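This part of the workshop introduces the protein records we will be handling. An example says more than a description, so a record of this kind follows:
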Amino acid sequence: MSNFKEPLILDLGCGKKNRPGTIGVDYNARVGGDISHDLNVFPYPFENDSVDKSYFDNCLEHLDSPLSVMEELFRILKIGSTVEVIVPYFRSRLLFLI
């Protein structure tokens, strides 16, 4: 019997498709993701110091209080964890194609 525990990796605001190997969290799991949760509502449904890595891909800029979101991530992430935040760059030519 092994004591190995899978890392908890979140894809927050994943939309219709979360990244492979992650738990997708979005406001409506019927649309996409594994867990239904409004990311504007705190606390998130995770224990303190329980998450190994988190992704925010083109989602953070749509939330009401990005600073509060980052504070909540600080609560749920383990020491030494990483957060990958991807947001549109305002000078990007692709921004106007969205």
Notes: The two ends are 50 Å apart (CA to CA). Strands lie at 9-12, 23-26, 35-36, 51-57, 77-86.
